[in-house]
Amino acid sequence: MFPAVKRVTDMEKNNETILVTQSSMPPIEEYVEAIQSIWKSKWLTNMGKLHEELTARLQKEFEAEHFLLFSNGHMALELALQSLGLQGEVITTPFTFLSTTLAIIRNGLTPVFCDIDPVRLTIDPDKIEALITEKTCAIVGVHIYGIPCETRAIEAVAAKHGLRVIYDAAHAFHVRYLGQNIANYGDISMFSFHATKVYHTIEGGGVVCRDFKVYDRLSRLRNFGFFLGAEDGDQFGVNAKMSEFHAAMGLCNLQHIQQEIHRRKKVSMHYDMRLGKVNGLQLFPNINGLERNYAYYPVIFHDTAPKNRDEAYDSLQKYGITARKYFYPLTSRFSCFKDILQPEKTPVAQDISDRILCLPLYAALPIEAVNRICDILLN
Ligand SMILES: *Cc1c(COP(=O)(O)O)cnc(C)c1O
């Protein structure tokens, strides 16, 4: 059998290399148990029993009125924007994963980039109003690294100007802010359940929304726009449905989410202890009313830090440790947008993106590895 030799080398390699994240897996017996029923029903996808069970469980987790599952977070966001029937300009942040900007552009909307707050790293609400024109229709904020946007201030500006508010909450599963689940801010929140996120369904995504009409439209958009019965459609939909196998993984992982976050917290706190007092390093911000999910461990390297960001990245790499320059470059610097977007208009975002590095963080990361990483960064 071909993989025998390769498997050994992979294992050896895994012993010495550390990646920025490692997907959490439930015990394999739990997954096997969860998929048994699929062999009986022969129902593999299209809103099956496991899909409906996961929908109900996550709706409860999010304390949401309306919740829908999708094949991935990107399609969830793209369809969420489509479901609102938006036209014109959308004020958003360039300090995010490419998906946020692509979802806006692929809806025929124009992203207008607002600079970020240098501590919170989310959209700076004081800079929104100056960007509003008669074409502005919405604000798309990102709870980057699970740091909540300044929801009150953003929503106040939006209410004043009659704008929709959509949050890319891909990083914010299980985050609570000011006494409620983060999912319940704005008109719509999108979550990613990708394998690299705190909670995952291998590939998957979800949308929480307030308005039944939006919910109803979204439920058709993810299934080719079909009405029930599939004999008519009134939306230009796509296929963005989650399969039973993905839903099964989601149900299994949900059983372990508390422990997952607890273990990540322990790793995070050890980093804090080692790096917290180092001159020139800016760590995760302290924010009133925030209950974190420990999704990422971002570090900003100021000029007085022992190393700059790229030196830190390279020296870790030399020891087989892969940190990630999330989010570098700004999405507004990608060449696919070169004629439309102006990164120089968001100098704070540009500066942070040149200084930030996400250190490895996952539930199974040993404390000795954290020490090794800190030793390399500080020597
Ligand atoms: C992961 C991610 C997405 C996209 O989610 P997928 O499930 O990978 O499609 C969107 N926005 C942000 C900020 C992300 O990190």
Give an account of the 3D structure.
This protein has 379 residues and is an alpha/beta fold. 37% of the residues lie in helices and 14% in strands. The chain has 12 helices and 13 strands. The strands form 3 sheets. Strands 1-9-8-5-4-2-3 form a 7-stranded mixed beta sheet, with helices on both faces. The protein has a 3-stranded antiparallel beta sheet with strand order 7-6-11, with no helix packed on it. A 3-stranded antiparallel beta sheet has the order 10-12-13. Helix 2 (28-41) runs antiparallel to helix 8 (244-254), helix 3 (49-61) packs parallel to helix 8 (244-254) and helix 9 runs parallel beside helix 12. The longest helix has 19 residues, at 257-275. The chain starts with a helix and ends with a helix. Residues 1-14 have low confidence and may be disordered.
How are the elements arranged and paired?
Layout (H helix, E strand, L loop, with lengths): L2 H14 L11 H14 L7 H13 L4 E5 L2 H11 L5 E4 L5 H8 L4 E4 L22 E7 L8 H11 L2 E5 L7 E2 L2 E2 L6 E5 L12 E5 L2 H10 L22 H11 L2 H19 L5 E2 L7 E2 L5 E5 L7 H10 L28 H9 E4 L7 H12 L1
Parallel strand pairs: 2-3, 2-4, 4-5, 5-8
Antiparallel strand pairs: 1-9, 6-7, 6-11, 8-9, 10-12, 12-13
The structure holds pyridoxal-5'-phosphate.
